[in-house]
Amino acid sequence: DAGVIQSPRHEVTEMGQEVTLRCKPISGHNSLFWYRQTMMRGLELLIYFNNNVPIDDSGMPEDRFSAKMPNASFSTLKIQPSEPRDSAVYFCASSLGSTGQNEKLFFGSGTQLSVL
Amino acid sequence: GNSVTQMEGPVTLSEEAFLTINCTYTATGYPSLFWYVQYPGEGLQLLLKATKADDKGSNKGFEATYRKETTSFHLEKGSVQVSDSAVYFCALSDPNFNKFYFGSGTKLNVKP
Hints:
The complex is a heterodimer of chains A (116) and B (112). Chain A has 116 residues and is mainly beta. In chain A, 0% of the residues lie in helices and 53% in strands. In chain A, the strands form two sheets. In chain A, strands 2, 4, 5, 6, 9, 10 and 11 form a seven-stranded mixed sheet that branches. A four-stranded antiparallel sheet of chain A has the order 1-3-8-7, with no helix packed on it. Chain A is globular and about 35 Å long. Chain B has strands at 3-6, 11-14, 19-21, 23-26, 32-38, 44-50, 56-59, 62-65, 75-77, 86-94, 99-102, 106-111. Chain B is mainly beta and 112 residues long. Chain B has no helices and twelve strands. In chain B, the strands form three sheets. In chain B, strands 2, 5, 6, 10, 11 and 12 form a six-stranded mixed sheet that branches. The A-B interface holds A 4, 33, 42-43, 45, 48, 50, 55-56, 91, 93, 98-102, 104-105, 107-110 and B 32, 34, 36, 41-46, 49, 51, 89, 93-96, 98-100, 102-105.
């Protein structure tokens, strides 16, 4: 199994530009999570999906952030317009069931986003 | 609410030293507890887990015991290696909220 695949690995963009991060979860997993990691705030859950449906987006910082999961094998996290304070590592993770079943998370390698 | 607190790093040890990374939690339900490890440039990987009180999780020489009375899940290893240098995250999963809650991470540096 290839694991959770994220792209791009690195993204450098200018303030005001649209940024799209992509994630392919492990085949057969039905829960998908987007996390943001910064030195100041650590690892923050932004949003998670179960069976392609957004369950909890309370961690999405503001309307500039949006996430979609059009099918079981693909999700995107979009920032429009981007700002320097969005600079962080963004991780996608998937699990076989919901975390209510104490399933472990499998993380991708992350996307390092730098907004200049 | 649910939260995880772990000791601040970095922790610097010599090879073969004993390791303890403290983790305490607050939870409204009956959580499972986890330790994840993040190597440089990579995502987090599950290191070990415990699903109920008094359970001990273990993997690669690391151990942690779920202590409900002290709401703790401290990570220990008897003899660390340089290859253990990484960031370690304590986490809990609350079935009532279908979420993982992560601590802030503790960076471990092991010197030869």
